[in-house]
Amino acid sequence: MPLYLEIIICVSLLIGGAFLLIGSYGLVRLPDIYMRLHSPTKASTLGITGVLVASMIFQSHLKGFFSIQELLITLFLLITAPVAANMIAKTALHQRTKSLKDTKGQDLMETIRDREAPTKPPQNP
């Protein structure tokens, strides 16, 4: 394997590992659920992307053609992580999970919790 590919793979793994470490630390360190959602959805997604890019480069060199499996996994993670975080935040809001006083948007939380479900418009016969 050429030296430049090894360097690119190592740098990508180091960057991905650093983001994963930061995301894990944030998940443990941040105090409430609303703040904790940022850590796994942002830092950990970037970390997994770095690791998968390194794997894609390595597998592409071994096979001799472009490896698409890692690209599909990365795309799936980039799409599903924000959606999952949004669903967790909505569940926490509707379950009235307490937030800290330092959490921004306290006034918006009550507005979102108490809003009515949209009604269907009347059907024309």
From TrEMBL:
Pfam short name (any one): PhaG_MnhG_YufB
Listed Basic and acidic residues bias regions: 99-118
Keywords in alphabetical order: Membrane, Transmembrane, Transmembrane helix
Record carries keyword Protein biosynthesis: no
InterPro entries linked: PhaG_MnhG_YufB
Chain segments carrying region Disordered: 99-125
GO molecular function term, any single one: sodium:proton antiporter activity
Signal peptide: none
Listed name of the protein: Cation:proton antiporter
Lineage per the UniProt record: Bacteria, Pseudomonadati, Pseudomonadota, Gammaproteobacteria, Oceanospirillales
